[in-house]
Amino acid sequence: MSVVLRVGQHLWTRARRVLPGGVSSNVKMEERPQPLFFTRAEGSRLYDCDGNAYIDYTCGYGPVILGHAYAPVVEALQRAAARGFIYGGQHEGEILLAERLADAVPCIDMVRYNSSGSEVVAAAVRLARAYTRRTKIIRFGGHYHGWFDEELLATHPAPDGDAAPDGDAPPAPESAGQPPSSAVHVLVAPWNDAGALERLLAAHSGEVAGVLMEPIMCNSGVIVPAPGYLERVRELCTRHGVVLIFDEVITGFRVHLGGAQALLGVTPDLAVFGKALANGFPLSCVGGRREIMDLISDGRVVHAGTFNGNPLGVAAALATVDELARDGGATYKRLIAIGTQLMQGIRDAAGARGVPVLLQGPGPVFYMWFTAAKAITDYPGSARVSREPYARFAATMLGHGVRVIPGGRWYVSSSHSDDDVEHTVRAAAAALEAAAG
């Protein structure tokens, strides 16, 4: 199958004249041979401006969990839109959604809404500092928490330098325009190493406000925590009076209705959510313990946003959460089955061709490397694997009508079918040898 991009090439030329990099988010510049331009999406399919159709495993970079243009969500949005887009005031939907979230997510007593993941991470960090009256935040090499100045740190450190000894050297800013001061109150530790975190907390006793992490390290390999690791982190944070913050922007509502914290059985003090919360409509939230969230109630902690809790986003989230909870969580069984079938099918195709690959993850989200390693358990192990073979693989898959994220992460939706899986595995078989060559 060949992909024709005649109109797409014309749009790409136009876009670069008026959009920096020709895109609206830097990550979209990674696609080969160029960023694509789409006209519509439905179910598991994307359709570009040249009439090409793709089975979609980007899922909007994670938000689309039920499928594109999923009817119950579309209908909820249409009803909400007919009542007005934004009120500059409150509406009952905000309460209903907060009640649903409090019922589903272990850590949530109260929530506040925003539109993006970066915003709610910043809110959680501010709350942790206000609650503890401390300033330092511990984060982990290879985790991504948004693009704001104090969050865009240590997301892609050198494989053997993701943590400074005792956290004494602040991480380097990763973007021009980030002031060095953005890193002054940030300490970096290696993830999945409880001993390193214990030493860092001891070295900075009484200074650390929060420990911020992805409970499953999705951004650098969909790596699950080692047995007992999260439990030990929870214990250390409690002992040192530190607020434990889970960044569940990816894992929230994707791996379990209650997030990774429910799946893994460890409850943080605060957590942030986005992406799959509203099946692609921009809505995020920060939630957690009442005594921490209540710092917003009397104005001690400032949290604002014109679009927070807007009726359309809330309606989409209510419809999404209701669908995910229906029939005892049958959607999650489907997501796990689809992801598992895909991973095993690609493993089998690679094995038959003598191409070493590794696929790992819980199913609704997983990661693929070209490596002979049997497992990858930390950021340095992931970072040392060359990304070039996978980038070639992704570009070749596009020619076979399958769109995947160039970096290695795959998302599935409940709209993906068994036929989609079969087509994808056949495409992968054709693309494997070219990628590894």
Describe the protein in words.
- Strands 4-10-9-8-7-5-6 form a seven-stranded mixed sheet, with helices on both faces.
- A hairpin with a 4-residue loop joins strand 11 (358-360) and strand 12 (365-369).
- The protein has two domains: 6-69 and 329-436, Aspartate Aminotransferase, domain 1 (Alpha-Beta Complex), CATH 3.90.1150; 71-326, Type I PLP-dependent aspartate aminotransferase-like (Major domain) (Aspartate Aminotransferase, domain 2).
- The chain is of the alpha/beta class and 437 residues long.
- The protein has helices spanning 6-18, 71-82, 92-104, 117-132, 194-203, 229-240, 259-264, 290-293, 311-325, 330-352, 379-383, 388-399, 418-436, and strands spanning 38-42, 45-48, 53-56, 110-114, 136-140, 186-189, 208-213, 243-248, 270-273, 284-288, 358-360, 365-369, 402-403, 409-411.
- Residues 163-167 have low confidence and may be disordered.
- The longest helix has 23 residues, at 330-352.
- Helix 2 (71-82) runs antiparallel to helix 9, helix 10 packs parallel to helix 13 (418-436) and helix 12 (388-399) crosses helix 13.
